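Morning run. Coffee first, then this:
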Amino acid sequence: MTLIDNSVPAEERLLCLLLALVPSRRGMSKQEIFETVRGYREDYLTKGQTDALNKKFDRDKDELKSMGIPLTTSEPENPADAVYSISESDYEALTFSPAEISLLTAASAVWRESAHSNDAREAKMRLLAADVDANPELVAYAPRIDTRDVAYPVVADALIGGSDLAFPYLKPGQVKPELRRVSPLALAIYDGRWHLLAFDHDRDAERTFLLRRIVGKVVKTGPALRTPEPRAGTNFAQHLTELWQSLTATIRVMPNTKAAVALANREGTAIDGDIYTVHYLDEAVFADELCEYGAEAIALEPQSLRDGVIARLERVVADHA
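And here it is:
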């Protein structure tokens, strides 16, 4: 069984550590950092608190201090209880509003999914090994992200400016969109798609919206009735990561096909012969993707995903009968 490597570049790990510590007024313990901050979390969840992980953290602390960032360590009686923090008052260059931190958190995810990431470089090598000259269409299946969501500029501007929004939203399985009135709280990108965490005023609860399902004009409706918490962006990104890790599908994949290249390079994919265990975030979106591959990728489990793919293919046949 082969597991795709998802190592995190040192520069990105430092950025994520900054984004975690700056808005934390009380600071964070080493365990909290290891459990929640990208770049440490991956190793901690698989191997625990190893000497190598501790040394990595010590190097990163020294690196931040060498850049003039006032990272401080408390001195409790038990060193294991030490708390690490960055004082905004001592380093005003890193004073961000909760909304700005949310967008910076999203930006770090864009960095991860961009052409600079290890996953993308690995995909490039795989494509070269697959003879791209003979199969140029395979290039389209390298890890990529779509930053052209029409709704994004208005949503991001409203998040920074503290405005409420209204937009038509089309949920999976619906024919007509619903008008949603929300206060934006955080933006995050995962699996190449933008997600918005917002307080839905008609439902009196927080909801997650996929920007690609906003099917009409996004309108600012006035000052935000709800504002983001300091760690809203970090917590939202963590939530999406945990959701991704919890949802897997079993797919039978035809070797040496577009589907094989695309699914092998998804984060966390495990491969056993022609059986792929693949993570996903949104079942409806993933069902749409699998339909594009046709017979190259057959969904086996979960049954709801398999039924969703079959239903979509049957609609295609009915529409073209």
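Confidence is low (pLDDT under 50) at residues 1-5, 112-147. Good start to the day.
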